[in-house]
Design brief:
By secondary structure, the chain is of the alpha+beta class. The chain has one domain. Helices cover about 35% and strands about 30% of the residues. It has a five-stranded antiparallel beta sheet with strand order 1-2-5-4-3, with helices on both faces. A hairpin with a 5-residue loop joins strand 4 and strand 5. The termini are far apart. About 20% of the residues are buried. InterPro entries: MULE_transposase_dom. This is Mutator-like transposase.
């Protein structure tokens, strides 16, 4: 049975499957010196492609996760020509701080620049 700990350990496998089934999807992950989870970033290919047809505005927000390991889920969205919300990217970080926000925006810029 999967636990949060084993689920975090399977992120690389998840990323490989995601990219294999959704070419051009972008993922990035980072662990600390002891191999523990720090950050995971995901932007699906469909979202990356949709960006070309959206308003040049990105809205970001973070929300605390309420599981054993806590952490924060940060998302980036935009608005399309029909005023509909389009999700662009998601990141899970160990905590909401300057380092995690910087890491998130660095990856966001790499994908949507």
């Amino acid at each position: 049975m999967a636990t949060p700990k084993t689920s975090y350990a399977m992120l690389s496998t998840f990323s490989d499957a995601l990219i294999r089934n959704n070419p051009r999807t972008y993922t990035a992950e980072e662990v600390d010196d002891e191999g523990r989870f720090k950050y995971y970033f995901m932007a699906l290919a469909a979202s990356i492609d949709a960006w070309n047809y959206c308003l040049p505005v990105i809205l970001v927000d973070g929300v605390a996760m309420k599981n054993k390991y806590l952490g924060t889920l940060i998302s980036a969205c935009t608005i399309d020509g029909d005023n509909q919300i389009v999700p662009l990217a998601f990141v899970v970080v160990d905590s909401e701080n300057d380092l995690s926000w910087t890491w998130f925006f660095r990856n966001l810029k790499a994908v949507f620049e």
